[in-house]
Design goal:
About 60% of the residues lie in helices and about 0% in strands. The protein is mainly α.
Length: about 130
C-alpha cells in the first residue's frame, strides 16, 4: 500500500471518529472541500504543509497520518527551562494554566490534552453558513 493510500485511510478514520465534515476541515486548513474529497478517495497526494495543517487540526502524529506507524495522538510534555534567558508568560490566566499542567502527572497531561482536543473538535464540527 502506498503512502497516499494509507494517508487517505487514516484521514477518513480521523474524520469519521471525530465527526468532522469535509467543509469544516477544508475551511480550517485553507483548502477547498473538493481537495478533501480527493484526499479521501486517494486521488490526490497531500503537500507537507497541508499534511501538517491536518495533523495540527486533529492533534495527531504526522507519521501515523502518512504511514500508519507510531503513536496516533500527539504526546505533550511540559518542559520547564531554567536560566536567566527563560521568559515566562505575563498573562495570569496562562500562568495559572501552566501551573496546573505542571502539577499533573504525564498521564494526566495526556488525558487533559485529549479532552481539550475533543472539545476543540466538537466546536468545529458544525459548519457555519
Amino acid at each position: 500500500m502506498t503512502a497516499t493510500k494509507i494517508f487517505h485511510k487514516q484521514l477518513k478514520t480521523l474524520m469519521d471518529e471525530r465527526g468532522t465534515k469535509k467543509g469544516v476541515l477544508a475551511k480550517a486548513i485553507n483548502v477547498s472541500p473538493g481537495l478533501i474529497t480527493q484526499y479521501l478517495s486517494g486521488d490526490s497526494g497531500v503537500s507537507p504543509r497541508t499534511r501538517k495543517a491536518i495533523c495540527d487540526y486533529f492533534m495527531v502524529n504526522e507519521e501515523w497520518l502518512e504511514y500508519g506507524t507510531g503513536d496516533k495522538e500527539l504526546r505533550f510534555e511540559v518542559v520547564q527551562e531554567i536560566g536567566p534567558e527563560t521568559k515566562k508568560p505575563t498573562n495570569p490566566v496562562v500562568q495559572g494554566i501552566i501551573g496546573i499542567v505542571e502539577a499533573m502527572t504525564p498521564e494526566q497531561q495526556i488525558q487533559a490534552f485529549k479532552a481539550l482536543s475533543e472539545l476543540f473538535t466538537a466546536s468545529h464540527q458544525t459548519e457555519k453558513p
